[in-house]
Design goal:
Blueprint (H helix, E strand, L loop, with lengths): L1 E6 L3 H12 L4 E7 L3 H4 L24 E3 L2 H5 L6 E4 L6 H10 L3 E5 L6 H12 L5 E4 L6 H12 L5 E11 L12 H4 L1 H18 L4 E8 L5 E9 L5 E10 L5 E9 L3 E5 L7 E3 L15 H15 L8 H20 L3 E2 L1
Parallel strand pairs: 1-2, 1-4, 2-3, 4-5, 5-6, 7-10
Antiparallel strand pairs: 7-11, 8-9, 8-14, 9-10, 11-12, 12-13
Bound molecules: nicotinamide-adenine-dinucleotide (NAD).
């Protein structure tokens, strides 16, 4: 049984809490920290987000210890693992302190706002007793795992073109609107688009160079990015991420992958299942195996902690590289130049 201290009971903290409830005897949330008294007491009626919570908005937290100060939670000897679901500007400080306190640390994405902070986190993780992973949920999303397997086993031949997209209305739900200030969130580039940057690194490796276009909106952050990744002569890799859509749009994530012998298309908001198109055959909708991505990422990290193994599906170094590549895209947007990596 891994005893979990959850810091941040907002949109994603509430989601993670639900996953621990599903994990039964493997893990239990024993401590919860949030600055807001109602949130740390289990009243989540003011928590917003772009995905509804099916478990209701008020919870009886029973014997879960409640902390207003995250340093007190870190000092709790009955906490084995810390799950960081706090705004991004707090990731580096809290993750480093939690690793130094000997805890296992699962930290929400993006790893941090700067490469320097990511490097400090990597250094803390190298010397730590506990395991460390950034919660790159897309690597665990069933449709995304399916696509990765198709690329790896080449069942449709080599990958020729990849288009990843993540599209949203401007988020209006965060605690004190922290997300709209790019000094706190990194804008859509680091908050939203970084999901696909990290996933693309897993799928095609690091790009050799990047050409990106985009623009700054709310508070100067990059709110729209379209990036071409230069990955060699035989492959076209394009990523787009934005949260400049009007309120009614909501959220969509999707991808199109073109292989030598097939194309795979998925768009969450379309309501259609992932579909494989092949010449001379009717479109196929393969059965997509696997648990909810949030459940799967947490379950995987717990299994690493249980086995005393460093996470391999998502490594902190790759999460750091995702921040570096996203910031290279920003440099390309701001300079109008191709950036070599
Ligand atoms: N993986 C995903 O799909 C996903 C989705 C949403 C958010 N996130 C990431 O999760 C993190 C949190 O985002 P969110 O949407 O849950 O934000 P949120 O605004 O909904 O919640 C943040 C919570 O942190 C609390 N908090 C702030 N400062 C604190 C402090 N010093 N000590 C304790 N609690 C504090 C706030 O009271 C609030 O309850 C961000 O890094 C974000 O990028 C990831």
């Amino acid at each position: 049984m891994i005893r979990v201290g959850l810091i941040g009971a907002g949109f994603i903290g509430r989601n993670h809490f639900n996953q621990y409830e599903k994990l039964g005897a493997r893990a239990r949330v024993v401590a919860l920290c949030d600055l807001e008294p109602d949130r740390r007491a289990g009243d989540w009626s003011k928590v917003g987000g772009n995905v509804a919570d099916t478990q209701g908005t008020k919870r009886d937290l029973g014997n879960i210890r409640q902390y207003a100060d995250w340093k007190e939670l870190l000092a709790d000897p009955e906490v084995d693992m810390v799950d960081l679901c706090i705004p991004t500007y707090l990731h580096a400080e809290m993750a480093i302190a939690a690793l130094k306190a000997g805890k296992h640390v699962l930290c929400e994405k993006p790893m941090a706002l700067t490469v320097e902070d990511c490097d400090r986190m990597l250094e803390a993780a190298r010397d730590a007793k506990g395991k460390f992973m950034v919660a790159q949920v897309i690597r665990f999303w069933p449709e995304c795992v399916y696509l990765r397997n198709c690329i790896t086993d080449q069942r449709y031949g080599a990958l020729k073109a990849l288009h990843l997209r993540r599209q949203a209305s401007t988020p209006d739900y965060s605690w004190r609107s922290w997300i709209l200030d790019p000094r706190n969130s990194g804008g859509a580039l680091l908050d939203l688009h970084v999901h696909d940057v990290d996933w693309a690194i897993q799928l095609v490796g690091m790009p050799q160079a990047i050409t990106a276009q985009g623009y700054q909106r709310t508070g100067g952050g990059i709110d729209r990015v379209t990036a071409l990744w230069h990955c060699g002569p035989d492959r076209v890799v394009q990523l787009e991420g934005y949260w400049d859509m009007p309120a009614g749009f909501g959220f969509n994530m999707g991808f199109t992958a073109v292989f030598e012998k097939a194309a795979i298309v998925f768009d969450l908001a379309s309501g259609k299942p992932l579909t494989v198109f092949r010449n001379g055959a009717a479109p196929e909708t393969p059965k997509i195996e696997g648990e909810d991505g949030y459940y799967a990422e947490i379950e995987y990290f717990l299994s690493c902690a249980e086995k005393n193994e460093n996470p391999q599906i998502s490594t902190p170094q790759e999460s750091r590289n995702a921040v570096a590549v996203a910031l290279a895209e920003k440099q390309s947007i701001l300079t109008g130049q191709t950036v070599r990596l």
